[in-house]
Amino acid sequence: MKLRKFGILCLVVIIITGMIGCSKGSNNDDQKSNKKEKIVIGTSASYKPWAFQENDEIKGFEIDIWNEIAKRNNIDVEFKLGQFSGLVGMLDAGEIDTVAHQMSITDERKEKYLFSDPYAYSYYDLFVKEDSNFKSKEDLKGKKVGCWLGGNGEATLREINDKYNLGFDIITYDGVAMEKELTIDRIDAFWQGEIKTKTIIKDENFKIRQLNEKLVYETNAYPFKKDDNGQQFSEMTSKTLNDMKKDGTLKKLSEKWFNIDTTEIEK
Questions:
Q1: What is the DSSP letter of 38?
Q2: Pair 31, 44: CB distance under 8 Å
Q3: pLDDT digits (tens, 9 = 90+) for 178-220
Q4: Bridge partners, 80 (sequence order)
Q5: Phi/psi at 60 (nearest 5 deg)?
Q6: Which phi-psi region, left, alpha or beta, contains residue 102 (left: φ > 0; alpha: ψ -120 to 50)?
Q7: Is 187 exposed, middle or buried (0-12, 13-18, 19+ CB in 10 A)?
Q8: pTM (whole model) above 0.90
Q9: What whole-number distance in Å separates Cα of residue 140 and Cα of residue 126?
């Protein structure tokens, strides 16, 4: 009789243990299923107003776009800061999923990356001090002209330098405000997107003017690696950007940071 009771007791213990184990397994499964997918964005701390850091807070047009994309797709977003010249390397190494730094679509980049649909458009142009005598690119022959290191700005500046035989002394920057470099005469001009530059000139009251050469028109989009994750994120990003265009969110964000709509092709 005692043996029978002992056997029943053991059976009850086994059943209860199994139930607890199943319950834990179920909870773990629920936790896994409830865990949000995450996308890691590489961006800059010094490219105002597109992306910048202020009082330990990351702000800017790019940041607002990605926070909205994350919210609409119920995913988490993490921002990793770096100089622009290093962000592409971070993408290639798998440290980030894309680059948010007014990155241009080029034929060379399209061979290597999957791009989302475009989200912004703008001209590159030459900028000089307001009181200078420079009127055209020809007036800058042989002068010091700044541009961003490793970006489409550097590539296109070198192209027009060769094409028009301008003999620029090209100075590259990475994380340094070229507007300030110009005002203290370290360079004679700089080559940069007009949307960014006009916004900074207005906000900081710099005495800088545009030459209005407008030789290069760029299209901005988000690059992803050519793999399954990249394909998934690229499609998600494109769909959400198009939804944001249709409902006016993208335009509102552009006007918030630039006071103009840079999300539509200039006509």
A1: E
A2: no
A3: 999 999 999 999 999 999 999 999 999 999 999 999 999 999 9
A4: 42
A5: 125, 170
A6: left
A7: buried
A8: no
A9: 10
